Amino acid sequence: MAKFRIEFKRNECIGAGPCAAVDPEDFEISPNDGKADLKGGKEEGGLWVKEIVADSADKAMQAVDVCPVAIISVKKIQD
Ligand code: SF4
Prior knowledge:
Structural class: alpha+beta
Helix content: 10-25%
Strand order of the largest sheet: 4-5-1-6
Number of strands: 6
CATH topology: Alpha-Beta Plaits
Radius of gyration: 12 Å
Low-confidence stretches: none
Order of helices and strands: EHEEEEHE
Number of domains: 1
Shape: globular
Largest sheet: 4 strands, antiparallel
Mean pLDDT: 97
Strand content: 35-45%
Bound molecules: iron/sulfur cluster
């Protein structure tokens, strides 16, 4: 299985929400400030990151596509 790394600039999130609609396994809207949270992610120098092991990262890639401010990225880090 491949390994992917999701990176998310939470401080730039405008809370539009479609990421959580297309990829609820990785994103949810915080009831506290209305921004997205990267579920199971951790903060690294202001960036939220999460590694996933899966056959594909199709849903996370959809989140990349639907974010209106382009603050989500997904990279394959291992085949
Ligand atoms: S789609 Fe982008 S701006 Fe909207 S909640 Fe998700 S990360 Fe934030």
